[in-house]
Design a protein that fits this description.
The chain is built from eleven helices and 13 strands. By secondary structure, the protein is an alpha/beta fold. Bound molecules: oxa(dethia)-CoA.
């Protein structure tokens, strides 16, 4: 039917570091308790990368990508674009995507990172899908990968109990069909960047000095102020996706939201009148892995057989920037 190609997900993959840090473990690190963390966030444990294992951002992203490529049955040489959503690349440059490109030997791809906080994966997916729609790309690898443990302040109980490390990836191919990515919608509000950030913007010192003196590389968050805004933004951007495609809330088969807080997910689903049985959550086991959370959840839901061919799948995210986004898919693996 459609004459313009669209991106279709043909493979998913994910991975997380070996070490699991439970809420009880955290009780020995900061003044917190399992009951508070579960009640306020839904999180029970998270994966944290270790220095002595192969668990850098690049290692995790490469592993997730190989899993996605294996499922797709596509060799890395076929990729013409690699896009990584991340705020914790191993180096300022080259990009995480280029470092993964080297590991995969994906010599024909243009590779770059997208920085959009927890919305990084949906921003990356949108960029790759747009390239496919323009005819600039036929096969793309899109990742969300984070090691938030490297920038978290392990003395700040307001943030360190919430975050985790991991990576997820999808392979997209250009298809002229009704299945695949039906739409993506992205929004930002830079005026609220101070609600979640990792460096002191007012500081005039060179970055290296300022980091050492002020520990300004640490992630800082005003969780309570983000909470309500997250629910409203997620609800609005989900409605925008549904309206754009003339699809009713009741026609959504699966919702895969960014996993920041179980209460945010439940309130968003309630606003959208989407039953929680249709909403995939794994925040209990991973915590908030920022841009990795949607592709990890999508890979798990896919491998658990929860996403049937033809299903209408809604992805929604919200994060630092502020940024938020949605993608509506007709599932086709
Ligand atoms: O990833 C995308 C962006 N992030 C988000 O969208 C996150 C949005 N925000 C949230 O998920 C929630 O706001 C949090 C989980 C961060 C916090 O939940 P809350 O219900 O908003 O709690 P709060 O920040 O209002 O804190 C309530 C109380 C405070 O004590 P007082 O002032 O009432 O005495 C905190 O000091 O809980 C205290 N508290 C803790 N207590 C035990 C904060 N962190 C902890 C902790 N353990 N880890």
């Amino acid at each position: 039917m459609a004459s313009m190609p669209r991106g279709r997900i043909v493979g998913t993959g994910s991975t997380a570091p070996k070490k699991i840090l439970s809420n009880v473990d955290l009780e020995g690190i900061v003044d917190t308790n399992n009951e508070w963390i579960v009640r306020r966030s839904g999180i029970e444990e998270r994966h944290i990368s270790s220095k002595d294992l192969d668990e850098t951002t690049t290692d995790l992203a490469t592993r997730a990508s190989r899993n996605a490529l294996d499922m797709a049955g596509i060799s890395p040489g076929k990729l013409d674009m690699i896009v990584a959503g991340t705020v914790t690349p191993d180096r300022q440059f080259p990009s995480a995507a280029c470092m993964v490109q080297e590991n995969l030997n994906a010599t024909n791809a243009a590779a770059f990172d997208v920085s959009a906080g927890c919305s990084g994966f949906l921003y990356a997916l949108s960029v790759a899908n747009n390239a496919i729609q323009c005819g600039n790309c036929k096969t793309a690898l899109v990742m969300g990968v984070e090691r938030l443990s490297t920038i978290v302040n392990w003395e700040d109980r307001g943030t360190c109990v919430l975050l985790g490390d991991g990576a997820g990836a999808v392979v997209l191919t250009a298809e002229k069909s009704d299945s695949g990515i039906l739409s993506t919608h992205l929004k930002s509000d830079g005026s609220l960047g101070n609600l979640l950030y990792s460096s002191e913007g007012k500081l005039k010192l060179p970055q290296v000095l300022s980091c050492i003196e002020q520990k300004s590389f640490h992630l800082r968050m005003e969780g309570n102020r983000l909470f309500k805004r997250a629910i409203n933004c997620l609800t609005d951007i989900a409605k925008e996706a549904l309206n754009h495609n003339a699809i009713k809330e009741t026609d959504v088969d699966n919702m895969i939201p960014h996993q920041a807080n179980l209460r945010i997910i439940q309130a968003t689903a309630k606003n959208l009148k989407i039953s929680m049985d249709k909403v995939y959550t794994n925040i209990q086991r991973y915590g908030n892995t920022s841009s990795a959370s949607i592709p990890i959840a999508m890979d798990e839901a896919n491998r658990e057989g929860l996403l049937r061919v033809g299903a209408t799948v809604l992805l929604v995210s919200f994060g630092a920037g502020l940024t938020w986004g949605s993608a509506l898919l007709k599932w086709a693996i």
